[in-house]
Amino acid sequence: MANNKKKNLTPVQQEYQKLQKTKETKRPVFGNCVKAFFVGGFICLIGQFIQTFIVFQFDFTEQTAGNPTVAILIFISMLLTGFGVYDRIAQFAGAGSAVPVTGFGNAVVSAAIEHRTEGYVLGVGGNMFKLAGSVIVFGVFSAFVIALIKTIFIQWGGL
Questions:
Q1: What is the pTM of this model?
Q2: Rounded distance, CA 8 to CA 14, Å?
Q3: 8 pLDDT higher than 50
Q4: At how many degrees (to 10) do helices 66-82 and 85-93 cross?
């Protein structure tokens, strides 16, 4: 198919594509993957420290300490986004900062900050959940489907 597209191009367009390929900056894919891996892992390590602290200081179990840990991580990422620090981390780490749950908090707050001049209701409230809203809906729907499947299997005695 790529050859068919090349055949339909004029000689000037083909020459331009060759020039474009020579001038295009090569992205350090391996280096970006390594940075994303280590920054994402470091964020998860911080989350593990928070969870361990909650387990030992507040007498939670490992299962019940998960929710406060996620809430604290989201709060920290929202705070760092408000101060402009998380954007610098995201510039350095790329997807390493977007994949953990902290990316969710960053998405919510950055949309709210971007649209704050339009007012609190239509600007902040209307645009805050543009990206995060789909994540919430997908999460709720997925949880419903999994619970439905589990209920059906328990009813039939499968699990």
A1: 0.69
A2: 10
A3: yes
A4: 100
